[in-house]
Automatic annotation (TrEMBL), chain A:
It comes from Saitozyma podzolica. Gene3D superfamilies: P-loop containing nucleotide triphosphate hydrolases. This is GTP-binding protein of the rab/ypt. Residues 176-207 are annotated as: Disordered. Pfam families: Ras. The keyword Nucleotide-binding applies. It comes from the Eukaryota. Keywords: Nucleotide-binding. InterPro entries: P-loop_NTPase, Small_GTP-bd, Small_GTPase. One of its GO terms (molecular function) is GTP binding. PANTHER family: PTHR47978.
UniProtKB/TrEMBL annotation, chain B:
Belongs to the Rab GDI family. It comes from the Eukaryota. InterPro entries: FAD/NAD-bd_sf (IPR036188), GDP_dissociation_inhibitor (IPR018203), RabGDI (IPR000806). It comes from Saitozyma podzolica. The gene is GDI1. One of its GO terms (cellular component) is cytoplasm. This is Rab GDP dissociation inhibitor. Pfam families: GDI. One of its GO terms (molecular function) is Rab GDP-dissociation inhibitor activity. One of its GO terms (biological process) is vesicle-mediated transport. Transmembrane segments: none annotated.
Length: 207, 525
């Protein structure tokens, strides 16, 4: 019997480093250079989260609920609710930028997660835009070293070419605990179920 | 690999009928208590909407920006605080004390909390050590989410409907409030909500139980379209006191029916048509029937989760959020008086319309010399005491949470006193700590004394933080100047008036009523 466990995965990183593009490559195997309102163009608009399931072996599957920042990483407006109950985080930076920009920002997100998230959270640091490695400005060693120091998983990938994308999610899946953690899937909610119940209860009054 | 596109996009809005809930206010107070620890002249949040709209992040404003974003409006939402929720936030120590721009309420709370913690650390030992020092309180304070307003969600009420229709429930987890109690003749008892419970309730004597039973049976069988169930009463015209008279209910029974079930804050409803009162009792009993323990539900981690969840709804529909943005000025065209934009940190954002809470539009400030416009008016004051307990509220069967209503007549007041208690069961406090908020509408010059009957029900109080909060309402609908102002969160124990304000502001901003359509129900083949 195959068993599927759901995990909440949050995306973090500076704007325009390719967070949403990585996920779209992973979930739909698509990529778009077009970026006006990127979340609308790549299909995150109106989506609370995207899901994708990977099979670890014949018996075990991991279902990711992937949460996009919805642009709230800008202007210091990412709410605590975003981090709540997250099991994994993918922190993205752009290797074609000098380290003091998006890589530095990635480091601050690591600190933020260490402060706000569950101590057991699996963190994957990703250097994106590997297809543009000719114009690389942040070295692989720098990323690797920081990841080692902080105990993070590390990968470089390209949302555009697809290189390394599936692998990095597989690596996270392997690292996640085998036992279902508390997530927000309806079955494991601690409290009352509210969804859909408003429709079920006939209303005897005008309220 | 399966792929699922999880959308709240098939939210299509259908009709949501809407029961108006009256707001009650007392006359403005001449003076406030000098010994109050928190003086909350700047209640809470900024929410502004524009086209691009601007907003702040209190619950009212976040619901509006969520709905407007789904509606396709371009929304820019700003807040002077570095956290979501303004007056409807739940705060922990760290967040509060790190925030240079925290509202006056929050800042003073933080200062007081910090001082207390330091004092207790210096003194050392004793009862204060746990949970007040160390990890759970002074070190990070992360275990605490103290609501700034005490409100619970009626399980069948408007906010629940709004949460379900917008799919915002996916970001939240809810738990029941464990009990609903009412004070009568010096003690508290569970509020009966069915004829069966009425029969068992210690609130009434034998004969009164029969009468109450008849009254509840009348309510349970009442159907709008079946005159045979109306027992000759036209609820649209007859007064509520006449309904009471028909069933012969005693004044004490009327107190719990009108205040603990219909949730009126004062007795004005008795001399008004019975319809809204009956609607509200039915709402209460329906809410009660839904999960069983009480009519209320509450989000884990505190009420501050609600504005965040609606803000996320807005953001995934393209809304832009900016926290920690001090608003220097709200700009109007000198010729037409119409709103043109706001200035923050020297930058001016232009927008057609703005929505915001009263604190962004001069609440609590003197009118500047030589001009300006009086945009908000004080309608009353609420006194609230946040009390920290190390035990459940006596008489509640060790409930992890409760609401207790003290009807005004029972303690010789004009307005009810409310107690709302939550605990670690809701992830808002350290283990074995209860947070109880006692509140009422201010009637005298010594507000803190007015909540004494409530405080006395709590047993020993470990710590107490009292605030006096003026309530503000806009002076104009905003149609002339395109400045749309929300109301301060009132003294009611639930969110019905908040949602009413959302409907009202939407109507003012859009010029048409807000119609929530039912979501497409997905039928499996």
């Amino acid at each position: 019997m195959s068993r599927t466990t759901s995990f909440k995965l949050v995306l973090l990183g500076e704007s325009a480093v390719g967070k949403s593009s990585l996920v779209l490559r992973f979930v739909r195997n698509e990529f778009s250079d077009f970026r006006i309102n990127h979340r609308v163009s790549i299909g995150f608009a109106g989506a609370a989260f995207l899901t994708q399931t990977v099979n670890l072996d014949d018996n075990t599957a991991v279902k990711f609920e992937i949460w996009d920042t919805a642009g709230q990483e800008r202007y210091k407006s990412l709410a605590p609710i975003y981090f709540r109950n997250s099991n994994a985080a993918v922190i993205v930076y752009d290797i074609t930028q000098p380290p003091e920009t998006s890589f530095e920002k990635a480091k601050t997100w690591v600190r933020e997660l260490q402060r706000q998230a569950d101590p057991g959270i699996v963190i994957m640091l990703v250097g994106n835009k590997l297809d543009l490695s000719a114009s690389r400005k942040t070295s692989t060693e720098l990323g690797k070293q920081f990841a080692d120091e902080e105990g993070l998983l590390f990968a470089e990938a390209s949302a555009k070419s697809g290189e390394g994308v599936e692998g990095l999610f597989m690596e996270i899946a392997r690292k996640l605990p085998a036992n279902p953690p508390p997530t927000r899937t309806p079955a494991s909610r601690q409290g009352v179920r509210v969804e859909g119940q408003a429709e079920e209860t006939p209303s005897a009054c005008n309220c | 690999m399966d792929e699922e596109y999880d959308v709240s996009a098939n939210v299509a809005w259908t009709s949501l009928s809407h029961t108006p809930v009256a707001t009650t206010t007392s006359p403005p107070m001449a003076s406030s208590a000098t010994h109050s620890i928190l003086h909350t002249s700047h209640l809470a949040l900024i929410w502004m909407i524009a086209d691009p709209h601007l907003q702040g992040t209190g619950l009212t404003e976040c619901i509006l920006s969520g709905l407007l974003s789904v509606d396709g409006q371009k929304v820019l939402h700003m807040d002077r605080n570095d956290y979501y929720g303004g007056a409807s936030a739940s705060l922990n120590l760290t967040q509060v004390s790190n925030s240079g721009l925290a509202s006056l309420v929050a800042r003073r709370t933080a200062v007081v909390f910090e001082k207390e913690v330091r004092r207790r650390q210096e003194r050392g030992g004793g009862d204060w050590d746990q949970p007040w020092t160390g990890r759970s309180y002074s070190a990070t304070g992360e275990d605490y989410a103290v609501d700034l307003i005490p409100k619970f969600i009626l399980a069948s009420g408007e906010l629940t409907r709004m949460l379900v229709h917008t799919d915002v429930t996916r970001y939240l987890e809810f738990k029941q409030i464990a009990g609903s109690y009412v004070y009568r003749d010096g003690r508290i008892s569970k509020v009966p909500s069915t004829e069966m419970e009425a029969v068992r309730s210690p609130l009434m004597g034998l004969f009164e139980k029969r009468r109450a039973r008849n009254f509840f049976m009348f309510l349970q069988s009442w159907r709008e379209d079946d005159p045979a169930t109306h027992q000759g009463l036209d609820v649209n015209t007859c007064l509520m006191k006449d309904v009471y008279a028909k069933f012969g209910l005693e004044p004490g029974t009327q107190d719990f029916v009108g205040h603990a079930m219909a949730l009126w804050l004062d007795d004005d409803y008795k001399t008004k048509p019975a319809r809204p009162t009956i609607d509200r009792i039915i709402l209460y009993t329906q809410s009660m029937a839904r999960y069983g323990k009480s009519p209320y539900i509450y989000p884990l981690y505190g009420l501050g989760e609600l504005p965040q969840a609606f803000a996320r709804l807005s953001a995934i529909y393209g809304g832009t959020y900016m926290l920690d943005k001090k608003i220097e000025s709200v700009n109007v065209d000198p010729e037409t008086g119409k709103f043109t934009g706001v200035t923050s940190a020297g930058e001016t954002v232009r927008a057609k319309k703005v929505i915001g809470d009263p604190s962004y539009f001069g609440a609590g400030k003197e009118l500047e010399e030589g001009g300006g416009k009086m945009r908000v008016v004080e309608t009353g004051k609420v006194v609230r005491a946040i009390c920290i307990l190390k035990h459940p509220i006596p008489g509640t069967d060790d409930a992890d949470s409760a609401q207790i209503i003290i009807p005004q007549n029972q303690v010789g007041r004009k307005n009810d006193i409310y107690i709302a208690a939550v605990s670690s069961a809701h992830n808002v406090a350290a283990q074995n700590v209860w947070i109880a908020m006692v509140s009422t509408i201010v009637e005298t010059s010594v507000p803190e004394r007015e909540i004494l009957p409530g405080l006395q029900l709590l047993g020993s109080v470990l710590d107490k933080f009292v605030s006096i909060t003026p309530l503000y309402a806009p002076t104009a609908p905003g149609s002339d100047d395109h400045v749309y102002i929300t109301k301060t969160y009132d003294a009611t124990s639930h969110f019905e008036t908040v949602v009413e304000d959302v409907f009202d502001v939407w109507h003012r901003v859009k010029g048409e009523p807000l119609v929530l359509k039912k979501r497409e129900v997905q039928v499996e083949a």
